[in-house]
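Reviewers of the previous submission asked for a worked example of the structure-prediction workflow described in the proposal, so we include one complete record here. The input consisted solely of the amino acid sequence. No template or homolog information was supplied to the procedure at any stage.
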Amino acid sequence: MADNGRIPGDKFIIDLVNLRQGEQGVAGNNSDHVYYQLVHEDGTPSHYTPTPQLQKAEGHKDSGTDRKVTLPAIDLRQLGDKPGYYRFLVWPQALNPDGSPSAIGWDPAKLEDAFQLGSVYYRYTAPRTIDPGLRATVKTARLEATAGQDRWVYPPFVVRNTGQRTIGTAKVVFTAPEGTRFTEDHVAFTRWTDESREVVAQGVLSADQRTLTCPAVALNLEPSGPGKDAWVSLYPALQIEGTARGQLQVGIQLGEPVFATASDTIDVKPAK
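From that input alone, the workflow returned the following C-alpha cells.
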C-alpha cells in the first residue's frame, strides 16, 4: 500500500537467474540485463516508466541472492500518476555466445511476456459495501494441460445463487496467471434450464490477455432452495503457453461490488 504515493527503495528487487549462465557453447548462456516497467491496472504505464526500462543485473544459475538489484525509491504522487493498482513487470534478457540476442529472452514489447514481481496499491479505492441479498457459490474444477499445447482449455465455473433474491445481469471478471492467456473477448455459458443451449456474453480483454472483463452477463439466476437446483456454468477459452509451469490458478469474480470469487486449478505438465 502507498497512500502517499511513495514506494521505499527496498521494495522492488530484481534477481536475474539464468540456468544456462556460463555454459560453454550453449545458446542464451549470458544474462546481464532485464527490462522493467510499472503498469497501471488499466494497461497504461506509470510516468516513472513510460516505456520498459533497461536495468543491468548480474545473471547467475545458483540460488544465491547476493547479486540482486534494488531499485531506488519512487514517488507516484510527485510523478503525477493516477491512483489505482500497479503491477511491477520484468522481462529477463539473454545473449548467445556470439553476443546476439537469444530466442529465450522475453520481449518487452509484449505485456504477456512479462514476469510480475510485485504490485502497488496507490490510493486504491475499496469496493462498495456488498449487498447482503446477493450471494453465490462457485463450483470449481481441476484440469490437466501440457505446456504449449495447441488445444485450448475451458476452465468451468458453475455458479449457484445462495442469496435472497435473483441474480440478474452481473459483471464477471476472469483472471489468468502467467504462462496463460484468454483467446476470446467473450465468455460462453450454459444454464440449468437447457444445457444444450450455449449463450455468449461479450467482454473486453486486457492488453496482456490475462484479464477478461464481461460487464453485463445475463445470469438470471434464481435462488437455490428445496427442489430447485438452478445453476449457470461459465467457461472462458484459455491458451496454455510454452512457458506455463506447475499448478496455475484461473480466477473468477462476480458482481460490482464483488459478491463471490473462486479459482480453477490447472496442472500443467512440461511438453515432451
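The mean pLDDT is 90. We consider this example representative of the routine output the project will generate in years two and three.
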